[in-house]
Design goal:
The protein is about 65% helix and about 0% strand. It is an all-alpha fold.
């Protein structure tokens, strides 16, 4: 079944190349890379299966996979920059509000990449060059953004912490929460999203420097 365009698609014409990438990634996630044929990708993309329409845009099935991963990486870099810019406009909001926005943005991003995540764990070990793209283009920018954001907040200006390590813990928990849902089918510890967000914010607030003792 051909997937309908996402929200906002009515304002943007989806090209054949984009449809091929989107439908290929969906099929790779559902069936696996090796089990998905070029003809199936063509059919899902609205092309005549087996007629070679895919090859007018890509040289091979592998090139479709590589294009999907590279485009997701490029989009992630843009999204990270936009999210940080949006957070900068919230400087008048309380710290907990800003932290909640940060963690919810992270959860939304990991959920958005659910298809790519399934492909990553199932198939990408055979393509180490694409693993590198995922690591450097999708994962690391998210962790770097956490470091950048915390360092920019005035409340944490005097905090003597290893922000790279903190990002690994806080960012890793966001990734784990969504991966657990994807693989197990329920939230870790049965914690609902709002519970997770509130706990994440409390942990982050706990990084604030202790007030100086009153003499």
């Amino acid at each position: 079944m051909t997937r309908s365009p996402g929200a906002g698609a009515s304002a943007k014409t989806v090209s054949t190349r984009e449809r091929i990438i989107d439908e290929a990634l969906r099929l790779f996630a559902e069936r696996g890379y090796s089990a998905t044929s070029v003809a199936e990708i063509e059919a899902a993309s609205g092309l005549s299966p087996g007629a070679g329409g895919l090859y007018r845009h890509f040289k091979s099935k592998y090139e479709v996979l590589a294009a999907a991963i590279n485009e997701h990486a490029n989009r992630t870099r843009t999204q990270v920059a936009e999210s940080l810019a949006q957070l900068d406009t919230m400087e008048q909001d309380g710290l907990e509000v800003r932290l909640s926005h940060l963690v919810r943005a992270g959860l939304a991003k990991v959920r958005e990449e659910s298809e790519l995540t399934r492909v990553f764990f199932r198939d990408l070990s055979q393509f180490p060059e694409l693993v590198t793209v995922v690591r450097e283009g999708l994962l690391q920018p998210m962790f770097d953004a956490i470091v950048t954001w915390f360092r920019a907040q005035p409340e944490y200006a005097d905090a003597k912490v290893d922000w790279t390590g903190i990002a690994a813990v806080l960012g890793g928990s966001v990734v784990h929460y969504r991966l657990f849902q994807e693989t197990v089918g329920e939230s870790p510890g049965h914690a609902e999203k709002d519970q997770f967000v509130q706990a994440w914010v409390r942990l982050a607030v706990g990084l604030l420097p202790a007030p100086a003792p009153v003499s």
